User: Fold these one by one.
Assistant:
Number 1:
Amino acid sequence: MVVNRLRAGVSSPYKQKEKEVLEMAVFKCEKCGATKEGRCKPKKCPSCGETGTMKKES
């Protein structure tokens, strides 16, 4: 039984897909200079509310 093998420390016969580690990026507003950390580019600035001004910092 699979459950017993897992409890005994034996690996499962089914390979599990390894999760990719996504690094967080820092985005900065070109208008007000506010920064936000995240995986995806924000649509609008969390501080001034302007859309399309968030750019990834290098």
Note: The radius of gyration is 21 Å.
Number 2:
Amino acid sequence: MANWMFGCAAGPQHSESYYEYLRRTTPAVRKLLGVIACMIFLLLCPFIALYVCIKHGTGPLSTRLSQMVSCIGYAWRYTTLPNEAYLYRLFDTKDQIGMFTRRYETKGMYQLLNGKPGSDAVRDLKEKARFSRKCLEHYLATPQLFQKDDLKAPKPLHPDGLIVKPASGLHGYGVIALDVADDGQHYKNSATGDIFECATLGSYLETYYKGEAFLVQPRLKNHPDVEKVSPGALATLRVITAVTAPDKVAVTSVVWRLSRDGTSFVDNFIAGNLAANVCVESGIAGEALILGQDGKTFRSPKHPVTGHKIEGTKVPLFHEATVLAVRAHVEAFSGSSVIGWDVAITPTGPVLIEGNWNPSLILTQRVSLKAHGTTYLAKVMEGHFQSVLEHGHPIQLKPMVLE
């Protein structure tokens, strides 16, 4: 996209230094290809905007037409994708449109901050088995990762069942829950209803995942107070931590991801669940953003199924959860500048489920109703981009151990 290449969009941008870096380093051929791609996008934009407005538009025909015109205008001025106008409610925002991150920008930003996908720092977070080993080495609470020989056990590996996920899966796709049958000798696949002997777990999963690599972990329970607002899947806090100085890591944002009902065994928002912004200082949640069964979102201060209040609720063990995330960043994953942690609140305390080297900013902006460019994280990232321009690398964290 043209503004991605040159930072030429109208109005302020969420990161001037990042665009300056792109202007200095992008090869001429790639710039030309970017301009061509942008021209094609702008030509197709009216048709894309029409489709998006038919699917997501609200109100009478005149309002939808106005929204479509706005989508086209945002695209031509900021190369904002038409669906992002609805994701971020750009029709209602008071922030400058250019202060929102576009979907196609963040991967490049994180590669500049955390390294390329093949780097050790990224692999430590991206590869789930490697992440688990790294956490155990630094005595960080994380779910046990069962080995291949464990899958032949004649009895259940965990009394509460198991969670199985593809080794390279994203967004909760391919995740299944295995319940322990009443006889204590069989598992039941919650997704398909299959029942099989515990001793055949390994062969069953090999067949189910068609030879693809998978991970098997205990099915953890929510803290009792969390269960009231997440009646199905294990809820997680998406805690984003960032290096803010050579000797400091800080929590910059927190989103609470909750399940809709007991049939769900993943908390990903895209799976039809809930998310609420959480105050970094107090740990108090805001109103929930809910993805309805019709694909449209709405907001509510209460859980749609349990009726329990979400807005104004203090997240249990919030301080302990954020301390765990900061400690993990400092002691085990210091090679990355910005990390998005999934932290579960269990009856025994917070547990690190995974770390993300390129945490999405889409949900954060949606639940907070704030453009990324207006946040503390944007200010921190800008400092890193300036360091890249001046020194050739982001701000680097000194080796240290937290007390």
Note: The longest strand covers residues 248-258.
Number 3:
Amino acid sequence: MKRIGDETKKWILDALSRGYRDSEIKELLLDNGYKILDIKKSIEEVKSSKDFGKNLNFDESVKSDMPSFEELKETIGEKKIKPLPVTKISPERDKREINKIASRVLHREKKPEVDSEFSQEVKEVSRLLELVRHEISKSLIGQKETVNAVLCAILCNGHVLLEGVPGIAKTLLVKSMSDALGSESKRIQFTVDLLPSDITGITTYTPERGFETIKGPIFANFLLADEINRSPPKTQSALIESMQEKQVTIAKETYKLPQPFFVMATENPLESSGVYDLPEAQVDRFLFKLIVGYPESPEDEKKIMDTNMTTKKFEDFGIQPVLNPNKIIRMQGVVKKVYMDDKIKDYIVKIVHKTRKKDFNYGEFVDWGGSPRATIALFIASKAWALMQGRTYVIPEDVRKISHYVLRHRIILNYKAHAEGITSDKVIDEILSIISI
């Protein structure tokens, strides 16, 4: 363990003056090999010193003498606090901690001015979403992360691809979500003999009525495409036009889909026979790919035994509509007005560009990085996530939170990655650890 000397105390003074919390300073010093008791004692000594009182006089002359965040970061990594040997400390972890603090500093130092009317809109959206979560929780136990991610995708007017074993309430999620949002839902079970016309609809002729169009189940606000990888690419591609253009072509006529239109497709990861990989062009049209796991705790699973679709009817849950299609569309408009600073935009671009350059650990396992559609997805999804937190502006933590959802299906790995057990999530973790604000 290292002892805290005068140089380190000066660094603590700089950090406190800059607005860092005690807990943030403790974290960095602990990671660099200092004792917790020494850290607490030194922070108290610095706070009681006369220099500390001077530095807290936040007029412009003092501000100009304070270290910038970049200078402060240098003192952490290179000058006054030397890192421990590689065997005892992870450089990637250090960078992640610094990035966390950077997001908090940016959050404190630059809050955009917004009008009170927009602030009220944001508060109202946040309140309504909380009511939606409450209604969904009547039927769906746990899965809070999945519910939040799906709500985020709906706010973005995007679609979701779910991967998970059978029996984890994927169908129940869509049904509960559509009822709570006051919208119509339909389900399509994909099979090997399913035809595109079974999804979109057909034109028929009868002597009494002549030619008429019978619309398929795709004409709904919420569509569950169950086990989409059981059908061949020809059938899967029937969804491409509807997902991107929000319209369907039947024979020679084009029909607009009801708004909002949301597709949640599921795929079964267990089986390798009788399934077809989704074409990259179609996968890219899903805003998010979510990995849904088992119940989070034994307590949740006990609750599931008491409230499930085997022993109860869906109507028994009593889910009440909180929203309607028009309100959802208005909420999607609020997302677009959420403020994003140019620094956050640069951060998003750097993340996506890094997936293409491959000049990092695990880069050798990447065949193709994210396209500009990935950049757009990170842009709009981080706005939606900020809105869900009740904020009118985006911080870096919003981008990091949704990065796995957006990028895990857009980073195409090679055979070497599959052979060595490298997943796209590992690649994303590595990228986030090395990209700074």
Note: The two ends are 31 Å apart (CA to CA).
Number 4:
Amino acid sequence: MKYNRLGKTELKVSAVGLSLADGLPGGSVMPEQGVAGGHTYGGESWLQVAFDNGITWFDVGQADGDTTAFVSQWLRTVKRDDVVLATRIADDEDVSKQIDHQLQLLGTDYLDIVQLECPNDGLSTDAERALQEAKEKGKIRYVGLVGDVDEVMFGLVNGAFDVVQVEYHLLNARAMQLALPLARQLGVGVLTRPFRLDFCGEGIYGGIAAGPVDGRKRAARVVEVLEKDLGRKEPMDLHTLEKVSLQLACASGLVHGCLVRPTSREHICEWARITDQPPLSPSTVAAWLREAGGVDQRMRCAWADDPLLAYYHDVEWGRPPRGDHRWFEFVVLETFQAGLSWKTILHKRRAFRRAFSGFDIDKVAAYTAADVERLMGDASIVRHRKKIEAAVENARIAQRLVVESGSLERFFLDKVKPAADPLEVIRQTFRFVGRTTAESIAFATGIVPLLHTAGCWLARS
């Protein structure tokens, strides 16, 4: 088994992990007996079989049902630090209560990774604050996001997550072309969800019975190309396709851990040995990318010249943020951009988020001279004393605006946007903000209409 450090976290995970989100077939133990991987099994724990085969991380989903009890019992038999435990929570419910509930059910003092399920409009202020507090109290170690490619890209752009989990399979080349390279560039850990082609009905050849027609045709074409490139004379069944998909992920250099579902002891042992298999050839990977449509050829504004900028341009630029901390974030980041490129600031966004307490207005407003000196010594951000002092002062201004308008969001939408000269209102309200910086804030948050360049795919919208 191969083990990988999970991005910039301190976690080390096995290349293959076990997904328990859908429960365990037949309960907590394997009912059948036999030999697999050189070991005799009968009535043993699914978890122990996986652990004995080198699998060290487990995704237990939202940690409810009988599976949670099985995991809790099993954790008592192993050294907790040898296991990486990931759970999932919903952003639209009380985050603190969900975390406490999971800790109680699993019988553990901490959760290694807590993953939010698809907050596609960004983390709410309350959720982000609750996650940060849980981190500070030692209840969780890292925050993750579970979503499709677009949702994961959004999470990577807004910089709030240590880990992302995305579906990675033969028909999802966009993950390899877009999300995963960006995650590596940012140092974010990447986990993948189990491969499924359930929509293919009884097979992916001639008789595909479910799913959109275009999807079925593309699935059949991708499989046909792979079969030809791999020199297979027999059609690949779903299990073989799952194996090929897992090989693609493990050999990509972009994925730290791949989830598989427990189906039988033989499959667990086979998945555990997947990293010992010869990697797929570059020609096979190239054929897959070509047929699976993973190349993005859309034209954009000239400044969106790398994956992070491109996705920010497509998804976030010009859209009103969600929550006061996001509005304040743009005031801070655009202020720091003065005299620099947005590319520089956007690539340091995670560092700014950490350095400025998640852009929590009240926390930043309470910063002292000692905090300013701390930030001046932080090489991961832009060390500019006047800009740092302006960020603290602007947090205090934001506090006043919240009292006067009900929220920072309402100030921007009710007072700034309808104004005859919105840029002048922004310039006069905040410190260290000139006309150009005010314009950047207004464009970024949708206060004034965007000006996409001719030829950009978003120009007409």
Note: Residues 43 and 442 are 63 Å apart (CA to CA).
